[in-house]
Write a structure and sequence with these properties.
With 140 residues, this protein is of the alpha+beta class. Helices cover 39% and strands 20% of the residues. The longest helix is centred in the last third of the chain and has 11 residues, at 122-132. The protein starts with a strand and ends in an 8-residue tail after the last helix. The structure holds 2'-deoxyadenosine-5'-diphosphate and magnesium ion. Residues 54, 59, 63, 93, 111-112, 114, 117, 120 line the site of 2'-deoxyadenosine-5'-diphosphate (DAT).
């Protein structure tokens, strides 16, 4: 498997509780390199577009309100098999189902307030990175 890039968000529940460093420690311990990172306040439009695939789901409104409720940290992670590896480090969407030692097991508050986002495939990773970062921002 080649070197890949994936897109990550440290979500409002985690930035609010000062967990950015603790989450970054787990990312780096897994061998993923943080090659771009910025703290932003997501706009409603950005949140609605980013989660557009979930527009018809009953939790969409709640999800958008949550994502704009506090600053987030958007990141690009690089490494061997980075997309699947980060999904493993994150753990399952629902923290009650997440494996021990994962970010969501250790930090997530609920299925909605679950501390991190990670891309699920190469196509979405490329789209999500391009939505928040210019090519020159990525320092591999
Ligand atoms: P993941 O973030 O693990 O890729 P997803 O893409 O299915 O999960 O959903 C995106 C986000 O939407 C998820 O991180 C939290 C929220 N979400 C998903 N299912 C939910 C539910 N049943 N209730 C509340 N929020 C939910
Ligand atoms: Mg997803």
């Amino acid at each position: 498997m080649a070197i890949q890039r994936t897109f990550s968000i440290i979500k409002p529940d985690a930035t609010k509780r000062n967990l950015t460093g603790a989450i970054n420690a787990k990312i780096e311990a897994a061998g993923l390199r943080i090659i771009a990172q910025k703290r932003i306040r997501m706009t409603r439009e950005q949140a609605e577009t980013f989660y557009g695939v979930h527009r018809e789901r009953p939790f969409f409104g709640e999800l958008v309100e949550f994502m704009i409720s506090e600053p987030v940290v958007v990141q690009v992670l690089e490494g061997e098999n980075a997309i699947a590896k980060y999904r493993e480090v994150m753990g399952a969407t629902d923290p009650d189902e997440a494996a021990d030692g994962t970010i969501r097991k250790d930090f997530a508050l609920s299925k909605g307030e679950n501390s991190v986002h990670g891309s699920d495939a190469p196509e979405t990773a490329a789209e999500e990175i391009a939505y928040f970062f210019a090519g020159l921002d990525l320092v591999g």
